Fold each of these.
Amino acid sequence: MVAGKYESDPAAVCYSAHDRAVREKYDFVLCDTAGRLHTRHNLMEELKKVRRSLAKLDETSPHERLLVVDATTGGNALAQARQFNAAMDLTGLIVTKLDGSGKGGCVVAIREELNLPTRFIGTGEKAEDFKIFDPHSFVADIL
């Protein structure tokens, strides 16, 4: 784990993590930034900086850019996905809280409008509640 000091530049922390992973021959690097609102311009610019910083070490990096959305936010998840996709050219979604009142209709709307696949879902708080998304099971559960 590579962590920065309080209020560190997220791009610098991600750059350091990527550099270390290459030197120590890790198979992958996972950069998890702090939660952010799509309406906060400065935070969206921070994400773009992370991407530019990682590209200095590997022009194809980051290889995956996943947005985590809360199933209970409904239509707001689509608005979030639009903004994050514009900033980061997303490759997929992680949808959480599918065990609650949210039914995850945002999955369909986001796929339809932005062609972003849902890669993983969260249906609880345990590690085994984090699963690869299966669209057939998802539809069956809704029906």
Amino acid sequence: MNDLKNIVLGVTGSIAAHKAIDLASLLTKFNCGVNVILSADAEEFVKPLPFETLTRRPVVRSLYDRGEAPVLHINIADEADMLLIAPATANTIAKLAYGLADDPLSCTALALKSETPVLIAPAMNGKMWNHPATRSNVSILSNRGVEFIGPDEGMLSCGYEGIGRIWPVEGISERALQVLNCL
């Protein structure tokens, strides 16, 4: 890969958030610049330090974080070649479907250039994934060109067996790199 591709990696409040650390590592190894946006709920499961160490970039945690740009989430959106949300909760999917912008991830999503691809890897309980509201929100986003990868089936953290697991990180990174024409 010759050109550095900038990926915004949104990490939301799922038990699968720890897998985003491996995802950030894989994408960085493919010479992608990875800007991590960590939701407040994600910080219940993971901390910024592993992401900052692997990406060599600060993690965005608040709309009031400052980088070299006065409005960091706008700067990150302007430079993004892709928005990748992994894991994506039902709440985050709903916020994106309805254009809510109350945190750095949702504000960044709204500020993306229209041609910037968005890839979402959901992770949630199967009942939540199959709920009509979530299915409707996925449909809304799909109709806007958002691509979903997963969820996968298997044993869920809640103890249920079924759909809802985050797609394997190798598959997510491979798909992201394909979308960016890096493979």
Amino acid sequence: MTISPFKADILKGKVAFITGGGSGINFGIAQALAAHGADIAMMGRREEVLKNACDEIKSKYSVRTFYKTGDVRDADMCAAALKATNETLGHLDILVNGAAGNFLAPPELLSPNGFKTVIDIDLNGTFNMCRYAYEYLKQSKGVIINISANLHYVGTLFQSHVSAAKAGVDALTLNLAAEWGHDGIRVCGIAPGPIGDTEGMKRLAPGEVGEKLKRAIPLGRFGTTEEIGMAAVFLTSSAAAYITGETLVVDGGHWFAKPPMVPREVVEKMMQASAKKPS
């Protein structure tokens, strides 16, 4: 992990629960929280992945870890995993809802079941976890971080299912922040842009597709899981104590930047030709 701008013990004594925490962006978040002192609990569907992730975090950061297999679409599994975390690690302070599904599909070819599956994982799964974490977070005056996306800020081709799900996640973030603020619970979101060191990017934007996407990002590069992790550290720390209901976009300017109508070299030639004309 790169050198952090935060104090190493800024989250010491906190317990963070991350869905999908065994890989990708969510593992980056889990590592960042652990590097700053938080004990880590995870839930996912693949036990081997969870075990390896927890073993690595425990070895690197000397924090307590716990995992339980489960599917966020199953409300009973969500409740059981949170209950077991509370019993094992003593309390719950941070919930990160990162479990998600995605694939490319034109809407006219997308099956109703495919659409429903993404909604169930991304949106319904986020609600399930928030719903059953509420009683624990109310006690700790805790924080929820919902992992969103920047896809629904514009019309993104082949991503109608994910865009609908993440728009719902953003709405849920706002509503829970308004509902649960009086209980001392902050609810925020993080909307990552293209993150290079993930399996998802390899599948969704391979080879030249990825290079073309990179050139369209104002900062000229993909993000990293570490950078998403740092955003999570900020939002879960006391530095963000008066921030709730906000979804922090971490995408290098990707969502709002449009490709040029004509290539730059054509514009330069037009300007040069115009300058040569007599006034």
Amino acid sequence: MNKDLQNTPPESIILEIRAGAGGKEASLFASDLATMYTKYAQKQGWKTTLVSSSPSDLGGYKEIIIEVANPEAYQTLIQESGVHRVQRVPTTEKAGRIHTSTASVAVLPMYPAQTLEIKPQDLEITFSRAGGPGGQNVNKVETAVRILHKPSGIIVQSQSERSQQRNRERAMDILRAKLIEAQKEKETGSLAKVRREQIGTQDRSEKIRTYNFLQDRITDHRIKKSWHNIEKILDGNLDPIVKAFKKHSQ
């Protein structure tokens, strides 16, 4: 790895959003978070690309990965890493009971290819057909790419591009980001600790932020600050939260 990596601003980031505890509600919440970050990025004029997604049979997503291309994205959104908890009454809940669900967010900086060499013999690459939810828009050509990095066991995939080559390049970018992050953590001797801080165990009790719909309140448990108007924030108006974290870090 390049020794100056720490001083190199990442060109873009990868947002990994995964449904945690809570079944259908967790999948729907993961989808809500993905929409929130995408809309926020677009309001900033940042380019966003859906890299891959795993729709849930229950609705929403089991996992969704988005690339945000802008040098400011990492410092702006790094505080979003962790377990997010939602408390609301599902539309299918006839008794009006509040359900608590979680989704995890990981923010990974991406760097140019020359920052880390990846040996071809360490990779196992497979291809498949890319398709939309419910079998729609199924591609007749095997353009989706899945890469296993054998030494680390890390698996990445990309299915958003129309060509196999572009999906392979994007998957390699994600793999590089994950390997660099793992190496950083290893060098600081805090791999397990940092990983727990990034996504935790996805347990309901382990959270960085709670979205309480009945009280129309979002609370961040790290800086002990709350905001109202959940729907507006989930519609991409993250500025109050971003500004609060910037002020807190000063």
